[in-house]
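Anyone up for a design puzzle?
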């Protein structure tokens, strides 16, 4: 007899059946329209909003402050720099994120710059979120060992379930929360990620 089970059951069972979620990017063409979209998403009950930057330090700082002012102090905000900055530039932006109460800084500098990310983690209060370019537990290991990331973002479409569970377990052992990453993927990939996320004891939020 064949018994069909949801993936989260095969991964050990669900720690939650209601995933906290965040909006990934404000796609509107102007900052005013992005502010309006952010207010709308917050009003619809999303847990948080992530903004994509990388348009120059001065422009990004203006955007960071404007979005915060638009949604007020109680909406959770994250920031993704898309690996577009030098270390000194990322520190300047990160200090503004600290001031404005953003809850993570994702992909700030070149993805292979382990030492630079460690410096950011030591310098800034805002947690450093990393994981999209990493595929295996062996690639995540030095990041955990050096505390160069503070939020782990495995992408199940890239890692698969088995490696993803190993990465999440190692993160848990290091007392590091997990926020699964979703990049460009199919509906099947997104559904798989939700199943994975539900099985994590150290999940903080889902993209």
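Challenge accepted. My sequence:
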């Amino acid at each position: 007899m064949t018994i069909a089970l949801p993936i989260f059951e095969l991964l050990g069972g669900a720690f939650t059946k209601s995933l906290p979620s965040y909006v990934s990017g404000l796609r509107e063409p102007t900052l005013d329209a992005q502010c309006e979209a952010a207010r709308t998403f917050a009003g619809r009950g999303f847990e948080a909003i992530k903004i994509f930057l990388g348009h120059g330090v001065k422009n990004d700082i203006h955007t960071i402050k404007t979005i915060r002012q638009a949604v007020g102090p109680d909406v959770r905000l994250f920031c993704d720099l898309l690996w577009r900055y030098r270390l000194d530039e990322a520190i300047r932006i990160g200090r503004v994120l600290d001031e404005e109460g953003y809850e993570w800084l994702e992909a700030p500098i070149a993805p292979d710059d382990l030492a630079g990310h460690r410096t950011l983690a030591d310098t800034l209060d805002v947690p450093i979120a990393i994981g999209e370019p990493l595929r295996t537990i062996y690639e995540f290991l030095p990041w955990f060992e050096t505390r160069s990331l503070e939020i782990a973002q495995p992408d199940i479409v890239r890692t698969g379930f088995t490696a993803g569970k190993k990465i999440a377990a190692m993160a848990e052992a290091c007392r590091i929360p997990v926020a699964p990453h979703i990049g460009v993927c199919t509906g099947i990939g997104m559904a798989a990620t939700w199943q994975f996320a539900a099985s994590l004891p150290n999940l903080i939020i889902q993209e």
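A detail worth pointing out: Residues 85 and 122 are 17 Å apart (CA to CA).
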